[in-house]
Amino acid sequence: MIELFTADTPNGKKISIMLEEIGYDYKVTKIDISKEEQFKPEFVKISPFSKIPVITDHDINESIFESGAILMYLGEKSGKFYEQQDRLKINQWLMAQMGTIGPMIGQHHQFHHYNPGKSEFGEERYFKIAKRIYQELDNRLKNSKFLAGEKYTIADIATWPWIARHPIHDIGLKNYKNLSRWYLEISSRDAVIKGYDLLKDGSKIPSL
């Protein structure tokens, strides 16, 4: 059984969606980051940088931190969404999410949505970067059904929850035809609908 230590964030939703996709039994242990529970010594033991999510695979008594590493682990363990012959492309798009898409859109969240008016420079900088990311993803998806090719993979599972926050980005997802097509297709998957409702509080996927 997999235990998922997480908060209700895009990075957390990556893992709940993956667990639903592969059909594994799992339980969610909520880490309340608003109360700084991620800094408790018992959590730091399994997450050296005090970040969520983390999983513990109780079948082997092993914990894994960093959402990209968790997706790779679950892909290898299940044999799903991380096919060996496609891993070069999958890894590139997964690392793009980990290194660029998530961190840059995350900064856009902080300046534009959570702390508007505190830094004009920050708001303008990350709005422009987030808008550019939308366009770059749209360009990729013009020529590819999914990010790493014609198959749905952990690269899509990693990226989709960040785009699912599009209502607070104020960029206009519907203006990006290919990205919208990809977003809606993934949004319709049963596992994504279930995994999005991470804390089972009735959370619904935002529409266009």
Can you walk through the features of this model?
The protein has helices at residues 10-22, 41-44, 67-78, 87-114, 120-142, 154-163, 166-169, 177-187, 190-196, and strands at 2-6, 26-30, 54-57, 62-65. By secondary structure, the protein is of the alpha+beta class. The protein folds into two domains: 2-81, 3-Layer(aba) Sandwich (Glutaredoxin); 84-189, Glutathione S-transferase Yfyf (Class Pi), Chain A, domain 2 (Up-down Bundle). The protein has a four-stranded mixed beta sheet with strand order 2-1-3-4, covered by helices on one side. β1, α1 and β2 (26-30) form a beta-alpha-beta unit. The termini are far apart. The mean pLDDT is 97.
Radius of gyration: 17 Å
Q: Which fold name corresponds to the CATH topology of the largest domain?
A: Glutathione S-transferase Yfyf (Class Pi), Chain A, domain 2
The total strand number stands at: 4
Q: Roughly how much helix do the residues carry, as a percent range?
A: 40-55%
Which stretches of 5+ consecutive residues score pLDDT under 50? none
Question: Order of helices and strands, N to C?
Answer: EHEHEEHHHHHHH
The N- and C-terminal alpha carbons lie at a distance of 35 Å
Shape: globular
- The CATH class of the largest domain, by name, is Mainly Alpha
CATH architecture of the largest domain: Up-down Bundle
Proportion of beta-strand residues: 5-15%
Short description:
Helices cover 54% and strands 9% of the residues. With 208 residues, it is an alpha+beta fold.
How are the elements arranged and paired?
Blueprint: E1 2-6, H1 10-22, E2 26-30, H2 41-44, E3 54-57, E4 62-65, H3 67-78, H4 87-114, H5 120-142, H6 154-163, H7 166-169, H8 177-187, H9 190-196
Helix pairs in contact: 1-3, 1-6, 1-9, 4-5, 4-6, 5-8
